[in-house]
Each structure stands twice: as structure tokens, then as C-alpha cells.
């Protein structure tokens, strides 16, 4: 099995600092890349047999696909503003050309697809915001490509976890193809930390502990979750952002909590009532 923690590299000629492929991750569905683009820098790619969700993590730019074109996208310069991003969905057998008009961090989320949906823009107002949890289990979720928009495989969202809090918690998993009880979804976590010199922790483990890794996560790290539970905690003083990409045989998010920690759900409900 591939190592679960991917650290960023210096930008290559195209601006890429992270590249996760099914081959490098040892799985079937999720591809994920991050680019740091300078003003005027151009990124051009063919989508091939994959659907793509381009997330303007920060910065502004113009995007052109085979049939569509959008100018002046992006108005978020920090992921910690609790402001939804601009994104663009691009289908298979298409292409995209991104021109950065400011410094930009661009996430490229990929999964195999047939081409059932056209290219389209996802504006901030199209995203769904919700706050989950109470106390030190509170986090702010923004659904980018989830129930708000159709796709073939991709599920994309982002989460801000305030300092001292936990998220993806109680620990949950989605690694069994057994609808309606659970769905099998591979997942990547792209982490950003504020202030950037901070760190957080993520554990990925299975019931039988065949897989059990706890990782110190730093700014621009990616954690891969091929299976198992995957909680995240951030220390006092450091806010945590992560961008989640999921894909699997079915585009449905059905998860199960670790039975050992299920009691936390009822305890939180009692405290909230």
C-alpha cells in the first residue's frame, strides 16, 4: 500500500506542488493535483476519460473549455474567510485552459466518467454551507460538488475546523460497497493551516488495525484515505482547512461511525437539548 501522507514539492514548470493519481495511491478512482500559478501563468490539460472539478482555492483567473468560457472568476484570497470558492466542472473528452490573473492556488479533482454532464460553473452561491457538531467537535462545511450539483463520480467539499477542535469525528468510514448501509469511497484531504507554520493530526485506521497510521499534517500536505476511519484534530492556536475529494463505484456518501465512539453522538445531542 502506498504511504498515506504526501508532502508538497516545489512548483514544477506547470506550477504543480501535489499530484495524486490512482496509480500512486494504489486505488481506482480519485485523482488530485494542486497548482500554484503566478499572474499570467497558463495551465492547459485534456480531461481524457475523467471528469474534473477545478476549485479556485485562492486567487482569480479566466477559464475556457471546448464550448464554454468564463472570465474574472475568483474573489477569495484566503481559505480561512469562510467564503465559498468558485469552481468549474469539466466533463470527459473536453479540455480546459486556466489563465491566472493573480497568484492562484488551483485544485484539480478527478475521477473516471463517461460524459453525462456538460461543463458548467459552480458559483459561491451555488455551494451549500453548514456547521456540524458542538463544543470542540464543531466544524464548518462547504459542499462544492455534492448534493448541490450532479456528477458521475466526484464528491467535493471543504471544511474549516477551528483551533482546538476535531472533525471527521466521531471517527467514521466509508469503505464497503453495501448500499444502503455504506458506500465505498476513496478520499483525499488537502490541508491548509493558519498560521501556516502550524500542524494538525490525522489518524487512518481499520477495525482490525491492519491499517493504523497517525500523521502529523502540515501546510499543503495531502492525506490519502483508501479505507478505514479518518478523524482529524487541530491544536490550540491553529485553524485547519481541508479540501475533500471522494469517488467510488457509487456517487453516494453513506458512512458508519466507529462503534467504540458512537456514544459521542448521543452525548452531544443531550448537551445540545
Descriptive tags:
mainly beta, Jelly Rolls, 2 helices, 273 residues, 5% helix, seven-stranded antiparallel beta sheet
Characterization of the model:
5% of the residues lie in helices and 47% in strands. With 273 residues, it is mainly beta. The protein has one domain (11-262): Jelly Rolls. The strands form 6 sheets. Strands 1-22-19-24-14-13-12 form a 7-stranded antiparallel beta sheet, with no helix packed on it. The mean pLDDT is 96.
Rounded to an integer, what's the Rg over CA atoms? 18 Å
Number of helical segments with 4 or more residues: 2
The total strand number stands at: 25
CATH topology: Jelly Rolls
As a percent range, the share of strand residues is: over 45%
* Overall body shape: globular
Number of domains: 1
User: Biggest sheet, in brief?
Assistant: 7 strands, antiparallel
